């Protein structure tokens, strides 16, 4: 089915009879304004004149371009897990002490995550505090960022990363641990 992955699994969440109706609307290339009126109204300029089939094709093309299916597999296979640099508790303490910086997602590559990050669906942590941003996880969140911009109204819920708008484009940002030489140290006897 075309509506899968981080689009919110639209088809997988609708019951049988409704799914059959949805598929008929897809086959008939129904206007998006009739099929998804609330999304159409919220983003009328973007989806003006769009049909359901056009929307599905754009989603499909986005997933294919980023090979999302493969990224989802890799993110949850041991050989592709992010490398651990510090234990999650140490990363959390660094976060609480303010030994972090907020960076754009591309700038997080090779940096230590200060927070766990997850998209919903599927609602599973993809990177844990103390792990290194990179590989399939970074590419997956980059694909999510592109999808958020390309397909307004279909953004997944993201936790542990932050969406900020700059120059008319939504960007994903995340907290990473500052390099050791940039961190302040606790004074003798000082506690968290």
From TrEMBL:
GO terms for biological process: amino acid metabolic process. It holds the Pfam family OKR_DC_1_C. GO terms for cellular component: cytosol. One of its GO terms (molecular function) is pyridoxal phosphate binding. InterPro entries: Orn/lys/arg_de-COase, Prn/Lys/Arg_de-COase_C, Prn/Lys/Arg_de-COase_C_sf, PyrdxlP-dep_Trfase_small. It comes from the Bacteria. Residues 36-165 form the Orn/Lys/Arg decarboxylase C-terminal domain. This is Amino acid decarboxylase.
